[in-house]
Amino acid sequence: MKTTGNTIVITGGGSGIGRGLAEALHKKGNTVIIAGRRQKALDAVTAANPGMKSLVLDVADPASIAAFAAKVAKDYPKTNVLLNNSGIMQPEDLTAPQFDLATAEATVATNLLGPIRLTAALLPVLRAQAHSTVIMVTSGLAFIPLAFAPTYCATKAAIHSYAESMRHQFRNSNLEVLELAPPYVATELMGEGQANDPRAMPLGEFLREVMQILEAVPASGEILVERVKPLRNAAANGTYAATFEGLNQMLPH
């Protein structure tokens, strides 16, 4: 993916990694359209970044996706990059006497069905360009789960697999498929505690490394900062069990 001269749609662009990538790519001279459910959050980002655009989108709602895709096709017909970043992460106690499926169902709708549906809806616009890119944001937890968030980890593993299949199917086309797998980054994905956790990778550091990798063109199709590689490569390196145990010491008691 070239890092300049694009028209880029970024979901979950109102905060965290989505906002950070939107701002980094905007500074490179790309046309950036951020999307999310909260108009107020989107407005704050566009006000801080003159020229950036925004559209409201609920990736868990098929009707919202259809309306959004139609608007993108009409107003931004040169869109050539889709960055599927929206996601939610909630703890789940599977041992609870009355386990509530609401969190699992919402997580699947947002993290798994959302990017699949949105990518499908925008494929006609993307494939009409000379070169286009779909970036799926997964997680280091796609490769080793954090057990207190089982559905989140499962959806990220599923999107990793989906991205691999999609990359293979489009291998001889004008569409490239990339996967960005962040480590534990200092954002508010799971609240202010994560944003202030000294164990988390600082967001600015993460963004700088991601942009360097993008500019170098990741041959594997995977965008992996150094901090996530112990998770990504644990199975291949024979360190899966030890890494799983170490990671899950973070479990709440």
| Cα distance spanning the termini | 43 Å
CATH class (first level) name: Alpha Beta
Q: How many structural domains can be distinguished in the coordinates?
A: 1
Biggest sheet, strands in spatial order? Answer: 3-2-1-4-5-6-7
The secondary-structure element order is: EHEHEHEHEHEHHEHHH
Q: Number of helical runs?
A: 10
- The mean pLDDT is 94
CATH architecture: 3-Layer(aba) Sandwich
User: What class do helices, strands and sheet pairing give?
Assistant: alpha/beta
Largest beta-sheet characterization: 7 strands, parallel
Tell me the fraction of residues in β-strands, as a range.
Answer: 5-15%
Spell out the CATH superfamily. Answer: NAD(P)-binding Rossmann-like Domain
At the fold tier of CATH, the topology name is Rossmann fold
Number of strands: 7
* Net shape: globular
Q: Which bin fits the share of residues in helices?
A: 40-55%
Explain what this protein looks like in three dimensions.
The protein has 253 residues and is of the alpha/beta class. It has a single domain (7-250), classed as Rossmann fold. It is 46% helix and 13% strand. It has ten helices and seven strands. It has helices spanning 16-27, 39-48, 62-75, 102-127, 150-169, 192-195, 203-216, 229-232, 234-237, 240-247; strands spanning 7-11, 31-36, 53-56, 81-84, 132-137, 175-180, 222-223. The chain has a seven-stranded parallel sheet with strand order 3-2-1-4-5-6-7, sandwiched between helices. Strand 4, helix 4 (102-127) and strand 5 (132-137) form a beta-alpha-beta unit. The longest helix has 26 residues, at 102-127. It starts with 6 loop residues before the first strand and ends in a 6-residue tail after the last helix. The mean pLDDT is 94.
